[in-house]
Amino acid sequence: MKEDLLHFIWRCDKLQGRPLTTTTSQDIIIKNPGTLNLYSGPDFFNASVEVGGQLWAGNVEIHLKSSDWYAHHHETDRNYDNVILHVVWEDDISIFRKDGTSIPTLELKNYIAPTLLEKYQELFQHYNPAFINCEREFGKFDAFMVENYLNRLYMERLEQKSKLILDLLKQSNNNWENVLFVLLTKNFGSKINGDFFFQCAMQLDFSIIRKESRDVGALEILFFGHFGLLEEQDCSDAYFLQIKSEYRYLQRKYQLVPVFGKPDFFGLRPANFPTIRLSQLANLYAKHQNLFSTLMEKENVRALYDVLQITSSTYWNNHFTFGKRSGNRVKKLSETFMDLLILNTLVPLKFCYAKHLGQDWSDGLIALVSNISGEVNSIIKNFASLGSKSQNALESQAKIQLYTKYCSKNKCLQCSLGSNLLNRNT
Question: What domain of life is recorded for the organism (predicted)?
C-alpha cells in the first residue's frame, strides 16, 4: 500500500457518513477535507474538522504509520505546527507538535471497505501491464468522461509549458517578440539541436535581429555564424567564404561572443539539417517585421499556415550543406513541421498572452488544436491498441500528458480515470 491510496480515501469522501473517532475515542466530523498540496508541507491545506465537539481549521497530514511523523522530522518543522489531524493507516505511536501538544489521530484500517482494497490491489498488483496499469479497463471508460478529461489534461500541459515562457519573459523584461524568437528557434532545432539552438538564441540580443531583419541575406549570415556553422576550415565554396568574411564584420559590429559548440547533422533527415532550418528561420523574420503580433491575431490553423509559408534561400535549393551540391528543390516548411511549431511554440504563447491580457482563450485554443493532426509515436500507438485512437493533436498531446505525468509514474489515484475505477462499487 502507498500513501496515495490514503490521499484518495481522504479527498474523495470515502469516509463521509461514517461514525469516526480518534485513537483516543473522540468523535470526528469531517466538514471540509481541504485542498491537496502537491509540494512540500502538509498533505492537505485549509481543512475543517470537528474533533470531540470542537471545530478546528488547519492542515491535515497523512502517513501509512504514525511513526512516519518522526521519521520525516515533522516535529521540528514549523510548517507542520498547524496540523489539526493526523490520518494514518496504522497508529503505532502517539505524536506531538514541536510545542509538545498532542495531535489527534484517525486510524483508517478499520474504516475502509474490503472492495476498495481489492480494486486497489487489482489496479497495481495483480499483473504486470504491458503499457499502463488500467489497460484492461481503459476501453470501457465512458467516452464523454474521457473527452472532458483529455481537455483538462491538455490545459494542464499548457500550464506546465507556460512556466518556461514566464521565465523567459522575466529575463527579457516582458519582451514577447524576444520570447517568440527563442522558442521558435528552439523548435526549428527539433529534438537533436533544440537545446543548442535555444542556448544560441538566448545569447543573441533580439535588437540585432530587428536591425538586420530587412536584409534576409545579412540575417542568414548572422544565424549561420552565431550558431557555429561557419567554423569549417576546409570548405572552399565561394558562397561559404564570402559569408564567413561578412560574419566577421557583423561579429565586430555587434561585439558578438562566439558560441561554444556547433549543431549536429548526424541522425537528421536532410530537410532538418541546421543549415536549412536556420535559412528558413531567417526568411521568416525577414518576411514579417512584427512576427509576434502577426501570429497572435491569427485564430485558425490555415491563417497560421499562411504566415509560416516560407522557404530557405535560393542557395539551398541545390544544397543541404555548404559546398556540396544536391538535386534542385525548393525547401519550404512542411505542414507537419508547421504543426509542430504551432503546438510547441504558438499555442503555449497564445495561452500565456491571453492570461497576460486578462482574457480566456481556452475554447479558441482547444478548437485550434483540435484542427491539427495528432502526432504518431509509441505512446499514441499504445493507446490506440487499447481502443483509444487519437483524432487530433489535442487528444494526442493530452495522452502524452496522461502517460508521462500519471501512468508512467503510477499516479493512478491522481488521475480522474484511475479514481473512477476505484470509485466503482466502493
Answer: Bacteria
